[in-house]
Write a structure and sequence with these properties.
The structure is a single chain. This protein is α+β, with helices and mostly antiparallel strands. The protein has one domain: Thiol Ester Dehydrase, Chain A. The protein has three helices and six strands. Strands 1-2-4-5-6-3 form a six-stranded antiparallel sheet, covered by helices on one side. A hairpin with a 2-residue loop joins strand 4 and strand 5. It starts with 8 loop residues before the first helix and ends with a helix.
Amino acid sequence: MENQVDIKIADIVPHKYPFLMIDKILERTPGVSATCQKNVSNNEPYFQGHFPGYPVMPGVMLTEAMAQTAGVASGRTHGMSDVGILASINNAKFKKPVFPGDVLIIKGVIDNIRMNVIKAKSTAYVNDKVVASATFTIVIVPGAFNTGSI
C-alpha cells in the first residue's frame, strides 16, 4: 500500500480541471485497489445548469469519478503519450443523490488486467452509505497522443 503523500494525482490521472473528478488518493495498492476522495462543492461548474435550485451531482460526473478511481487502482501511470479510454460501463447503479457539501469516498477494485485492458469495479460512498457503483472496462492506448489516433 502506498502512502497518499507519495502519490501525485497528476502522475496517475491525465485529466485536469474541470474534468479531474478526484481530489485525493487516500490509499492505493497498485494493480489491486484504491480509495479516493472527492469533496463535492457548490463551486463545481456542473451545478450552474444541472437542476438549478436543487443542486445534485450529475450521474455522469459521479461515474467519471468512479472510473478515475479504477484507473488509480490499476497501478498504471500515464505516459505523456498513453491514454486510458473508457470502453464500457456496466451495472451502473445510483442509489442516493450526491449534494454540495458531501464528501465522496470512492473505492475501486481491479477484477482483471490483461495486456492493455483493465476491468474494475468502483463503489462511491457518502457517510459510509453506498450512493453509486459500476463496473468498467478501460483500454490503454499506448502512444495515442503522439499518433493523433484519438
